[in-house]
């Protein structure tokens, strides 16, 4: 079973969205924090 299917079923798609948010939100926060550290 591949990790990223072209058309994942609904529960898997929701899980993928949550996983993306878990990775994405800290990354965005880190970028904002680094900008603040440089220009603050």
From TrEMBL:
Keyword vocabulary terms for this entry: Membrane, Transmembrane, Transmembrane helix
Record carries keyword Membrane: yes
InterPro entries reported for this sequence: SGM_5486-like-assoc
Presence of the UniProt keyword Transmembrane helix in the record: yes
Organism superkingdom: Bacteria
Transmembrane feature ranges: 15-37
NCBIfam families on file: SGM_5486_fam
Stated name of the protein: SGM_5486 family transporter-associated protein
Source organism per UniProt: Streptomyces silvisoli
Lineage, top ranks: Bacteria, Bacillati, Actinomycetota, Actinomycetes, Kitasatosporales
